[in-house]
Amino acid sequence: MSSAATPATPTSPLFNWLDTRAAGVLLHPTALPGDQGIGTFDEHAVRFLDFLQAAGLKYWQLCPLGPTGYGDSPYQSFSAFAGNPYLIDLKALVAAKLLTSAEIAPLAALDADRVDYGALYEKKWPLLAQAFARFKLAGAPALAADGETFAEFQTKQAAWLDGYAFFRALKDHHRGVAWWEWPAAVRSYAAAKTSLLRAQLATATEAHAFYQYFFFAQWRALRAAAAVRGIEIIGDIPIFVAADSADVWANPALFELDPQTARPLAVAGVPPDYFSADGQLWGNPLYLWSRHAADGYSWWHARLRASFALCDVVRIDHFRGFDEYWRIPATAPTARTGEWVKAPGLDFFRSVRAAFPQAKIIAEDLGDLTPSVVALREATGLPGMAILQFAFGGDDAKNLYLPHNLVANAAIYPGTHDNDTSLGWYATAAEKERDHARRYLRVDGREIGWDFIRTSYAAVSRLAVVPLQDVMSLGSAARFNSPGKPQGNWQWRYRSGQLEQLIGGGTAAYLKSLATIYGR
Fold first, then answer.
1. Over 60: is that where the pLDDT of 399 sits?
2. What is the four-CA torsion angle of 183, 188, 192, 193, rounded to 10 degrees?
3. Which of 20, 40, 146, 362 could form a disulfide with 89 if both were Cys (CB 3.0 to 4.6 A apart)?
4. What is the pTM (predicted TM-score) of this model?
5. In a 3-state reduction of DSSP, which class is residue 515?
6. 500-519: pLDDT as tens digits
7. DSSP for 388-406, written as a single string
């Protein structure tokens, strides 16, 4: 966070950080290539950084990096603070003599084009456990590239680490059952710390802390490699946390839960929208915002502090939820049933500015933008988002996402992780949308992916971010997530040869020329 924030006055926005035109690529690390069944923080991640540098790009945007569970969604994590152990490069554990090449070799047999999370669960966790067991026998050397020891890491991350690690140990002990189904003696962190299982699961708890040690050590090394290449990281945090998470288990008083059953009284989502006729029933517990406000939003400040320690910029998913949120009764079968409830709005962001005056935050403000949401975004000064795929098909030239209606303080995307690829969108869109896009962009549609990329680069919006799938001119088979579809998401991966083709085949050079032409 190097940019200085503009001092706020009664008439100026709280933040004003996006003052330079730049471009980036959206790619979640799980999609990186390699022979470990999933993308990891290895040499392929560094090679991706080489591509970004060669293409004249400044930003790498990610989805949330937290540990995933059922459904494999990075937006439904076991922790708002922890990292996903699946992203750990096991070859580094081989180099540390905690594993052998022969032991990790079976991972190479996993699908190289899609992440098989079931198979990964069966194969990678035992390897991580084996590495920890050998670490315990060998003593406590400094395994991090920057010399940080496990003990130092535990001390620095104490505010969240033990609660998370103990939660995961208890979850393993209870065979994956959600925490509200656990015995009363361990149904909250406060109670569990004095339970008999505390000592019984001490080693298992330490193991989960150790996995975090390696995750953070490898991420710091990768982020340092990005910095050397002039690349900044755009992270992502969902506004809500998962119900079955260490966050809710350790802080139940901050959420709208039934005091008897510990289950959510109501859950988050959105009413019927572009993606679903029934709306989106996310199932996340809702915040008791009055409790957060009473202590100055300290839990949220801790969450943001952890995010800024990982990334240079943070995108907050579902910005509208800070103005008002869709409260769905826990018993409702779909998100059609619900009500809009006011959230803390500007009061929250004033506290954020006081705690993080140089914060760089992107507001994901997609969807139905009410006047109050627009007013909140403008008062904060945070850049919003525009999606080209949402711009076409209507008869209204006032569509906010049409390029002539965009503003400078915004980030433009052809599509996000929730959209089809641009080629896939064009192949399946109604002819009215396709015709509108062709006429508006003055193109024939045969290279719509690149038409969208060029349009994004040319736009007045200071930040342009394009999905790697569009740079690779891939169709719907490379779609990363389909909202409302419970299975089969978050699986796509590319092959290393595809990236090399971008670097050696002229695509990187062409992107760099676009950056020059359009001042990015």
1. yes
2. -170
3. 40
4. 0.95
5. helix
6. 999 999 999 999 999 999 99
7. GGGSSSSS-TT-TTSGGG-
